[in-house]
Specification:
434 residues, alpha/beta, 2 domains, six-stranded mixed β-sheet, 10 helices, globular
């Protein structure tokens, strides 16, 4: 590794539970379609999502909006525009039919008939129109709606009779992230032009089930949460369904669930050095009742790391680090700048932490400014060739490389960190960032 001593930032992520952040949500579940086969899951999906969002502190108004007509849908969105003004996070969840016509996406109310191409504009609500009504600092649109289009055949036949050209693809059309307003994210149950599973006989669709599994994970950033949802759906569908999330979120972590972590260390930063003072005492977490004596089973590998243990691993890899408490009750690790490094700073974010500061998950990321090469082309090739890491261009056209660890242990983390650092050095050299 040719970049020993880089600026490194280690953070235990925590969101104060006492923050009076304003969060609003509009949850819609359309199932009883009058001119198409009714859907099984949207009611359950909407009710479960509304309950989860309420537990996360979201104001869901009068609760989920079920089986809304065109007039009702437009009224609900207009009302949400007023409710979302000044909100920290505004979230819309829609389960039901949504279609693409000529590469434009539309939400379909339960009374939509769509017998004529002209009906699309007056009987549905465009996705862009909904996004335009969201007035939060951060706006999240979640669509569990990439089902088969039951209106496609009739629209195509009517269009042909009129001598017009009309394209009705499968699922939803691709969304260009460059067209999104800043602070926005659109998440879809399936990839563009692909169809999502409705869940068969299950209570929830596969996509909503995955959302419910990860939505309330403490301290999990939104962008990482949607990647976990995607991975869960892909795994359960044997790769047949691949959710997408397109965003222009700000360059700071956005959380739906606060971290349970308490302060885990108080330390001092030293120029080019490392010093850790003893961790602050915290009450032991409640444990299970004592187990009566019996046969001794092999011990399971310990899962979870504190910030102090993570810093120790980084020291063993030759990095010079220092711990310091942060204003959110976590820790940060700093070292001085070094002009010969490929990255100006490396971040290790720990989350899903318990009251003792033992964290199960970690996200490691770094960035650097490319000096030459075609980043878009070369990063696509990189992602196709590397299993453990993911890289992309951020809003400042810097190259960002990250890796997500789950259920971390000292042994596994040491190996994965070394792999990450080797790949970072390789990528930086590829773009002349040394």
């Amino acid at each position: 590794m040719g970049w020993i001593g880089s600026l490194l930032l280690l953070t235990v992520l925590a969101v104060p539970t006492t923050a009076a952040a304003q969060r609003v949500a509009l949850v819609i579940g359309n199932a009883a379609y009058e001119h198409a086969t009714p859907l099984r899951n949207p009611h359950n999906d909407a009710q479960a999502m509304a309950a989860a969002l309420q537990r996360l502190g979201f104001d869901t108004g009068d609760g989920p909006v079920l089986d809304t007509t065109g007039d009702g849908l437009r009224a609900a969105v207009r009302l949400f525009r007023d409710r979302s003004r000044g909100a920290e996070i505004a979230l819309v969840f829609f389960a039901g039919h949504a279609i693409q016509v000529n590469n434009v996406n539309y939400l379909v109310p339960v009374d939509g008939a769509l017998h004529d191409p002209g009906d699309v504009a007056v009987e549905t609500l465009g996705l862009d129109a909904v996004l335009a009504q969201m007035r939060g600092s951060v706006n999240l649109m979640i669509l569990d709606a990439c089902r088969d289009n039951p209106f496609g055949a009739r629209l195509a036949a009517a269009s042909q009779q009129l001598g017009r050209s009309l394209a009705t693809g499968r699922g939803l059309a691709r969304i260009d992230g460059r067209t999104l307003a800043g602070g926005s994210l659109v998440a879809m149950a399936a990839a563009a032009n692909a169809v999502a599973d409705d869940g068969g006989g299950a209570a929830n669709s596969p996509y909503t089930a995955a959302l419910l599994q990860h939505l309330e994970t403490p301290g999990l950033p939104v962008s990482l949460m949607f990647r976990r949802v995607r991975e869960t759906v892909e795994l359960r569908s044997n790769g047949q369904q691949q959710p997408e999330a397109i965003d222009r979120l700000p360059a700071r972590p956005i959380y739906l669930a606060p971290s349970a972590a308490e302060p885990v260390a108080v330390a001092q930063a030293e120029s080019r050095g490392f010093q850790i003072v003893p961790e602050a005492a915290s009450p032991p977490a409640p444990g299970p009742a004592p187990v009566p004596p019996g046969p001794i089973a092999p011990a399971a590998p310990a899962v979870g790391l504190t910030a102090k243990q993570m810093a120790t691993l980084l020291l063993q890899l030759g990095l010079s680090v220092a711990l310091e408490g942060d204003d959110r009750g976590g820790t940060k690790v700093y070292v001085g700048d070094d002009p010969d490094l490929p990255a100006s700073e490396l971040h290790v974010d720990l989350f899903d932490c318990d009251a003792r500061g033992v964290c199960r998950d970690a996200l490691v990321w770094a960035w650097f400014t490319p000096q030459y090469g075609d980043p878009l082309l070369e990063l696509n090739e990189w992602n196709a060739a590397h299993r453990w890491t993911r890289t992309y261009l951020d809003d400042d056209d810097d190259v960002r490389l990250e890796i997500d660890f789950r259920d971390v242990s000292s042994e596994g983390m040491a190996w994965l960190l070394e792999t990450y650092l080797d790949q970072l050095a390789e990528l930086a050299e590829q773009f002349g960032a040394y």
